[in-house]
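This protein record is not my work; I was only asked to verify it. Would you go through it and say whether the fold makes sense for this chain? Here is the record exactly as it was handed to me.
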Amino acid sequence: MQIWRLPDLRNKILMVLLLLAATRLLAAVPIPGVNLGALRQFFSQNQLFGLLDIFSGGGLSNLSIAMMGVGPYITASIIIQLLAIIVPKLGELQKEGEQGRAKVNQYTRYLTVPLAILQAFGTITLISRGASGGVNVLGALSAGEWLTILFSVTAGTMILMWLGEIITEYGIGNGISLIIFAGIVARVPTVAARTVNVQLLSSDKFLDTSQLPTILGFILIALVVILGVVVMTEATRNIPVSYAKRVRGNKLYGGVNTYLPIRINTAGVIPIIFAISVLLFPGVIANFLVNARTPAIANFARQVTELFQNQTFYGIAYFLLVVAFTYFYTAVVFNPEDISDNIQKQGGFIPGLRPGRMTADFLYRVLNRITLAGAVFLGLIAVLPFLMQIVTKTQALTIGGTSLLIVVAVVIETVKQIDSQLVMRDYEGL
């Protein structure tokens, strides 16, 4: 391949692979005192933690020092982005170029530390109490053990964040996304082996060929889902924009026609992360209050816990939250009024519309319509495992729509960055 003909590009790719291997080693180092059998039973009975395990790259299911993955860093980044809308100084800092973005990134790193400690404490407390029905994953922890565990998990998160930033500097994709991608891909052999054991091998005969059509059907559906993810990830609505001719001195500028691309899935995978965080919060609080001394509070907490363990309620709530957060995050990252002002300042206009308010209203209408398609698509991708369980009546084979979405998006982004580096060196693209 062309990428191996360029020593510098080849070395960059090899270094990125080496750093990703280091992240997988961190995910395999468990914290002390873990009952592995009880831990497997806990995750087999709790689908929500299975979803969270995706973003930790399998570290959560091992209760490793990297059990939180890059989740606290992602949460800190989202909080900083939201604060930039509320706090004017922070918003101005983001617009100050490379120096301003460096300061914002530094604030994000600072915020990651307390978030990692809080999330680690809440997650370990929830798991140690056996939220799935008395499963004793961790014994009684002393103050010293708590301090050691929280320090180790926080250090693991900060190391992953540091490795992610180093990977990003090599220009071969986004480091944080690649770490999540590596965690998902690393789980493929385990899932495939479990599928073969459950579906093809039985107690009375070595090979159950009657299950082959089921597995082939799942593979076909997975390919269709991947195709749909690629189409929706790359789909855009192109808004035509014209620039008037202007004379400056003896030169003529403008007079060109271009377009403004608006992605159908502008929000990416962020709404799914938001929805998981919101769905996790009531369950965590309820599990803390189950043993409350006040009977009314304890009963209410048990009812909330049972409600969020109901697959139907969870699936509907998950879908609606993903749709709502898709609209919310799209409004955060794409402001039609700012886009309209920028077009007007550059002497451009959308044919048939006056610059200013009319252009902004048009962009609002277009954005709301295409976001509906993107929001419904993300919602269906998020609840795809639940739909497959209802149809197939089995949990052995479930298509992780969120995992596929992340994998496809990361692959597309990485291929584009490698392709751009090849083009810069006068090579044909991939």
